[in-house]
Amino acid sequence: MSAIEPFSGYGLGLRRDHYRDFEAGRVPVDFVEVISENFMVDGGNPLRILEHVRADLPVAMHGVSMSIGSAHGLDRDYLDALNRLVRRIEPLWVSDHLCWTRTSAHNSHDLLPMPYTHQALDLVCDNIDHAQNTLSRPMLFENPSSYLTFPEDEMTEWEFISAMAMRTGCYLLLDVNNIYVSAHNHGFSAETYLAGLPMDRVRQIHLAGHTDGEIKIDTHDQPVCDEVWQLYAKTRDMTGPVAVMIERDDAIPPLPELLAELDAAREFDGACPAMAGA
Amino acid sequence: MSAQTIADLQQEFMAHVLDDTSALPEGWTGRHAQGLAIYRNAYRARLVDALRGTYERTAKWVGEDAFRRAAAHHLITCPPCSWTLDDAGNGFADTLELLFADDPEVAELAWLEAAMHRCFVAADAQPVDGPAFAEATGRYNENDWARLRFKFVPGMEVRRVDHDIVALWRLLGDGIGEAGKCASGAGQYCAVWRDGFKPVFMLTDTHEGEALCMMLGGQTFGEVCAHLVGVTGEGEGVAQAGAILANWLRNGLIAGLA
């Protein structure tokens, strides 16, 4: 399995609200990220726009439906469709989430939590091997935000992710907001979480907003909050060159607001000792 | 925990996401119930929003509250099983037809929106234009014409409609308040296809609609001609077949000859 070379840059998601701006080449980013499933179609305007954008910018493919933690294995039709898009786009990398979305009968279209057990780790690693072999490339997997943990858990999330990366050779997409949300919801230390991860495997960082409450919810509908920016600064102290993006999927603001948030990430990195001169 | 047990756990978790009336698993606390409720709400909101996005005009026609109740009903009776959210709307037009049996415009409008949605991401194809068709068929004899079949542009769909669906579409697209009952357009057919990258539709009369349905179903141009001759007479039937074919070519419905 080949390696994924580090890519340093700042990007945004290619969302319908901003298609015209991206098509006109008016968006000053280093890469774009697409939701893979939105483009796993036979034809039409979305694919045309993606190919147009791809001609000028690197594209990261980010999926939500692989269901890498599914006890029923991976959906063959899904993998075939994803593979076709990979061949067509030649992305920077392909990512998905550490979660499950479906059983043999139903699909929740939501990122459901894994039990962190040794048997679950075996199952996830088998599925990752299958996916990476099918796509002929290593993938990135994103740490989830979660709203419950299982009584059966045998290890922490960061221990699970570390073992997963070591055994499969996969890389990590680190969602800083997800760490913040889950740390609050489950009462662990975000700093301990970061210290427990193999940072050399991180190739991309997501920054997003959430909804506050007794249980914080990862809604991607608000600006990145101060606490997440602080955690981002600590994260960047620990990572090498990575692709950083602002993730907004709901209540999508005008492009200048997202670009301002991306500038804020650049400013944090300018102040980050590990990144000085990078 | 064995892999089978994880399968059981996921099966049980999914059951709770789909249905909030089942009892919590053994050992689960109120805190688990709170977390589960977030997943359940997210599931419902995402799916209802997906249906709302596809059936925007239908929602306006039946009213937002009624539409959301119908969407929730559909998720219970037909929970999604495909990896793509696009398929979550499969069968929803049928659900709406059942739920709004006294409002027959609903079924036609829902079908039209679903067909436009499917067509939007159908495979790309270059339609055959008049000159290319003339060149391809220039040496055809009578038997060739009789055996001729068409490949229509991908994503094309046709159905019979009994209401003025064009007026309804325009009215609801403008966002103008309460829509009255639409005038009947009984016996027409509605064809949906993509013009370039834009989904479009047109109403046809009964004969053209029947001809489209026949040829989409794999019948030959000869069979269409025979059908039209049967219902309108020899001279009129052949003339109509020619006019219909010209209309299809003009509108870019034909992607190839077979």
TrEMBL record, chain A:
* A Pfam entry, by short name: MbnB_TglH_ChrH
Gene3D superfamilies from the xrefs?
A: Divalent-metal-dependent TIM barrel enzymes
Q: InterPro entries, per this entry? A: MbnB/TglH/ChrH (IPR007801), Xyl_isomerase-like_sf (IPR036237)
Q: What is this protein called?
A: DUF692 family protein
- Record the organism: Pontixanthobacter luteolus
Lineage of the organism: Bacteria, Pseudomonadati, Pseudomonadota, Alphaproteobacteria, Sphingomonadales
From TrEMBL, chain B:
What residue stretches are annotated with the Putative DNA-binding domain?
A: 9-94
Please provide an example of a Pfam family that matches this protein in its UniProt record: DUF2063
Record protein name field: Putative DNA-binding domain-containing protein
Originating species: Pontixanthobacter luteolus
Question: What InterPro entries does this protein's entry cite?
Answer: DUF2063
